Amino acid sequence: MRAPVSVCIIACNEEELLPRCLDSVAWADEIVVVVDEKSRDGTEKIARERAQCVIVRPYLGDIEQKEFCAGLASHDWVLALDPDEVLPPATVRELEESLASADEVLSGIEVNRATFYLGRWVRHGDFYPDWKLRVFRRSRARFTGRNPHARIEVEGEVHRLAGVLEHRSYRDLADQIERIQFFSEQAARALHEEGRRARVRDL
Prior knowledge:
Order of helices and strands: EHEHEHEEHEEEEEEH
Radius of gyration: 17 Å
Helix content: 25-40%
Largest sheet: 9 strands, mixed
Shape: globular
Strand content: 25-35%
Number of strands: 11
């Protein structure tokens, strides 16, 4: 018997990709989705049909939103996913086996993310390998990093799975440019709040 798992997802305007993500974690004991209040498509409706807990709240930043979402989990073991990510069946089986045999020192599990980009899987360069700590004991974890990219740190051992996490990042080049604009704005705001200022030499 493996330990119970809560899946935590934050989403905004993801009605196209969210169903695949939720289907891939239907085996979990609980699914928690936090929907950005600015979402204008069917994201909330899809989440309410398949998740045990759905909350709509303002997006205050990647770290804050994911931290809030994980805080709603009922179980100590949490699997954090983005709506554009899918756990293939083989990776799910490996994860469940790892959780079933987990000892007390294991605090986190990393999975290698493979990105589907412009019609093909990219397995080189900056895209791959792309190890992400996505499974963790909530009682031993904390969210760190700088918005718009939260990072999870845990106290204890971290293991790696052989399977991959499928990532369908960008729909097309226009979507990629739009996301770059969003992420750069979030990063600039985070740097400003830290007291960092842009200088000519930074160019």
